[in-house]
């Protein structure tokens, strides 16, 4: 197709710029550096009954995914996580055809949730981010205040299962995920902690009703949010609310002096664009 005039060019440039900067693309929770943390409130329940009882349309989904290399329009190499196209049959066997399975690409079991992300916390100063204290830890806070997809692996699902067993709902408290492992490292793990019980911040659950279904996102049927996405409510965390339940290993390393906020993470390769 062709467009006439400078005005139409400027309009299209604005549209593509919005997409490129994440204004419309569905955002994912991403922890890219050693000791990065994210704090969020789930708006997804683990089972249908809980979802109906607590007023959310979103129920945790899980499935088989492939991680495949890709190249952006600007030539940057990254990894993309795509849903395996095999279909489960009776007895649990997978049947059908999947191009990535045919090419020998490994698949892994992952779960997918909608969450409302308050902020990310980094140990390395970047872009003029404000410095904050989380207990005894000094770090740099990047406020997000938007809905994101939290997609993670089988091993994290075990930690999430423990939280589900300990608490009657996923909606009654914030969760904190910490990454251990340098950017680009093959030795990366993430730890999950739960904050104390607290009311769902006002407006979040109502806005979550407008989010696309997790199935549509996972299968790629929906790849962007309408307009600039739902107008996620602005939630301000009090100082008390922002006291994170830091993973024991991270807290111990800070208190012992083995880790000093602001120092560089352990060396690792640069490419690291998985969803976590």
Automatic annotation (TrEMBL):
InterPro entries: Tyr_Pase_AS. Residues 257-276 are annotated as: Disordered. PROSITE patterns: TYR_PHOSPHATASE_1 (PS00383). This is Tyrosine specific protein phosphatases domain-containing protein. It comes from marine sediment metagenome.
């Amino acid at each position: 197709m062709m467009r006439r005039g400078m005005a139409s060019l400027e309009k299209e440039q604005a549209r593509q710029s919005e997409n490129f900067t994440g204004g419309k693309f569905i955002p994912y929770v991403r922890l890219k550096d050693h000791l990065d943390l994210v704090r969020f409130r789930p708006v997804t329940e683990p089972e249908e009954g809980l979802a109906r009882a607590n007023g959310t349309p979103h129920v945790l989904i899980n499935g088989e995914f492939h991680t495949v290399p890709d190249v952006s329009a600007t030539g940057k190499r990254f990894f993309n996580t795509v849903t395996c196209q095999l279909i489960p049959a009776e007895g649990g066997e997978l049947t059908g055809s999947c191009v990535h399975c045919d090419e020998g690409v490994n698949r892994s079991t992952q779960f997918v949730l909608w969450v409302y992300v308050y902020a990310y916390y980094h140990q390395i100063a970047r872009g003029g981010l404000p410095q904050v204290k989380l207990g005894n830890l000094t770090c740099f806070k990047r406020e997000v205040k938007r809905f994101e997809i939290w997609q993670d692996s089988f091993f994290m699902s075990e930690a999430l299962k423990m939280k589900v067993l300990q608490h009657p709902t996923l909606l009654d408290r914030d969760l904190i995920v910490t990454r251990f492992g340098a950017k680009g490292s093959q030795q990366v793990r993430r730890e999950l902690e739960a904050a104390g019980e607290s009311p769902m911040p006002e407006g979040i659950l109502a806005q979550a009703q407008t989010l696309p279904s997790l199935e549509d996102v996972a299968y790629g049927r929906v790849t962007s949010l309408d307009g600039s996405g739902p107008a996620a409510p602005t939630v301000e965390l009090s100082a008390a609310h922002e006291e994170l339940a830091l993973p024991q290993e991270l807290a111990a390393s800070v208190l012992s002096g083995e880790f000093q906020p602001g120092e560089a993470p352990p060396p690792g390769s640069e490419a690291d664009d998985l969803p976590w």
